Model the fold of this input.
Amino acid sequence: MHYICDEASEWYPDIEDMRKKITAKTKAIVIINPNNPTGALYPKEVLQQIVDLAREHQLMIFSDEIYDRLVMDGLEHISIASLAPDLFCITLSGLSKSHMVAGFRVGWMILSGNKKLAKDYIDGLNMLANMRLCSNVPAQSIVQTALGGYQSVKNYLVPGGRLYEQREFVYKALNDIPGITAVKPKAAFYIFPKIDTKRFNITDDVQFALDFLREKHVLLINGRGFNWHEPDHFRVVYLPRVEVLTDAMGKLKDFLSTYRQG
Done:
């Protein structure tokens, strides 16, 4: 069951909504931090509240942290497992995002904390792992270089760096479009803008994304593709260079100047 992330609070998880959705059948809490699609980075106080909730109900914690190195503005990523040594935690990461080597699908999971709480689950993981014929050998060839080599990604995340400047550009460009507002992302390379549905008479966000694709040949992901409950959000990936983003944001502004759905 999905819990709410609150746009008015930097897209942090709504802890009370999370609490309300825990039932006798609930086994775990899942978080994505840094977050896709919002680019949010959860601070220690929010993570601690999640840990307290998991501890209260003796729940496992699954934490997708594949964007943990892509953090800007001098902020620091905190792994939730470090706050929950008494709980069973599974932390997920990989090279394709954290080291910006898209296509090299090398990932891992770290099991930590009280493993006695999940003996059957761990046995199942071992069984699945043993059923595979072999590992992804070509992709594994880059692991040593990626983890032990020069960590160039840091240069992208500071003023003047490519990812930082692309974030700055797309945040301003989106907020400059009448009818669009966006919370500034702190990490990863996504932004999740809000669109004024009344202004554009939007009732179907899939239709909005398809109309924009057909007219301007730019692909956006509609918000409900991420289980957002209203047709009023879409995701932008700001990995392309500023020149490409400039063209895309110009097309979006031009498209919305006349767009009305229905």
Remarks:
- The first helix runs from residue 15 to 20.
- The radius of gyration is 20 Å.
